[in-house]
Description:
This protein is an all-alpha fold. It folds into 2 domains: about 1-65, no CATH class; about 65-175. It is about 80% helix and about 0% strand. The protein is built from 4 helices and 2 strands. It has a two-stranded antiparallel sheet. A hairpin with a 6-residue loop joins strand 1 and strand 2 (about 30). The longest helix has about 70 residues, at about 175-245. The model has no long low-confidence stretch (mean pLDDT about 85).
Amino acid sequence: MATNDILCQHNITPPCTDSSYSKCPHCSLDLCLEHIIEHQHLVRIQFNEMIDRINEQKAELNNHSVVDEMKVKALAELDNWKANKIEAIIAIYNAKRLHIENVCEQSIIEKSKVQNAIFEDLNTTSNTIEKKKNVHPHDIVQLEQKLNELNTLIKKIQDDADAQLTNTVTNIRLPELIELEQRLQEAQERIKNMTQEHQQKIDAENIKIRGKDSDLLNLQRMIKAKDQEINNLKQNGTKICYKKLNS
């Protein structure tokens, strides 16, 4: 072995005594030919492991079971939401339908009562007029007035029913919207009450401030009056001293 030869640096016991053949790109050690081949075998094993990982990843990417499970879960939740909404809508629909039928039925009952009453009156009046020898134009006007009264009452009944039906259809609300509107109304009421309470406190403080201002004004007046008294006393005292000096 030449003096410039480098011994194999492979980590074994006892150490390898062969000269270095090349620097291993795998571990950057100087290795003999045998151990270079051994390290190449290790690299080949790592390469094969990497290929296996790539194939596993490829198979995993082609496996859509996770997405399919998410899809099934999401669709189940959507179907559940749909079923709940349909159930709520059907319940609202049935209640509104029953209300509409009741309004119409009540309208027919009221129309029948009015018609029967007025037609009975018309029949009685017309029979009485018919028995007269002479029919006066006033009698015809009387019958026409009763017909007009009937038409007015019937129209009012129909208009009232139509207004109720329109209100029933146009004010349909889902339960969550009704709850939201109730919460909004409650929040507005709380804000209104809080505003009133704060305004009452402000008004009370303003009353206190006005009272303090009044007390301060009275105190200033008292001080001014005292100052005037002092000035008067000073002036009187000066006059007395002047008189005594002159006397």
